[in-house]
Amino acid sequence: xxxxxxCRELGPPESLxxxxxxxxxxxxxxxxVAIHAAGINFPDILMAAGEYQLKPxxxxxxxxxxxxxxxxxxGVTDDVAIGDRVIVKLRYGAYADEAVVTRSQLTPLPxxxxxxxxxxxxxxxxxxxxxxxxxxxxxxxEVLLVHGAGGGVGxxxxxxxxxxxAIVIAAASSEEKLAVAQARGADHLVLYQREPFRDVVKxxxxxxxxxxxxxxxxxxxxxxxxxxxxxxxxxxxxxFTGGIxxxxxxxxxxKGASVLxxxxxxAVRRDPAAGEVRIKALLEWAxxxxxxxxxxxxxxxxxxxxxxxxxxxxxxxxxxxxxxRP
Length: 326
Description:
Helices cover 31% and strands 26% of the residues. The chain is an alpha/beta fold and 326 residues long.
């Protein structure tokens, strides 16, 4: 029988359970995928704790992205076949041996990726795409400041920002994370503990400041970012792992700056056509070797709590994947 990680009561990762479940028969138009890997994302952790905007009814299985092999179809014949290697997009349910989905939830796995890379691709790189291209409208030659540059979405932003022709300043909490960011294209590196990042940004830019700020951290990072921006800057609010930041509206006014919320998944639900454009571009760049997830840890499904803790404790560099099949 297949296995899944089940949330029966809201709480920390350790409150989740590994359980067996019976495979459900397919309804017309459904596809069964044998999951080989699932990506760990902060929304999974927040959802299990009851702290995310989406609150599934209990019990549920966390996980918004996976990769695997199509093993069964019911009436689905167009451009998908048994044996296809695919990425699976979910609102939850990825921490399992198998998933039953519709054709629209499947994306071809890039030929250059293994399953762990496929399972950690679209959430982070899709967010970076929506932030930098749709919301931030990043232009070649502009200065992009990326906070949390050692995390999955931060590294995706570093990689994509450099590909788009920006001057990338990567800020992170360790030398090891910065080394990976530099390998992904960062032009300048900022270690948070060494000196205030806003001073470094001003020095690098000769006092002008950053044109675009990519901020998945929030809190004081957001508040200090407002103090090192250029005229017309766009501050992209990706998340708030460091707390909710407060905006100094006078500084935003003086700089003619914009603060833009980034919700990549919701944007696709509201505008599916834009989502198709995004995925097409991401897949082309992946096949060309221009972008690739950095998977620092691959753990078996049974070690789900340890895998989730790697994100909570900021020990991951890039992405963490649960592996269902060795």
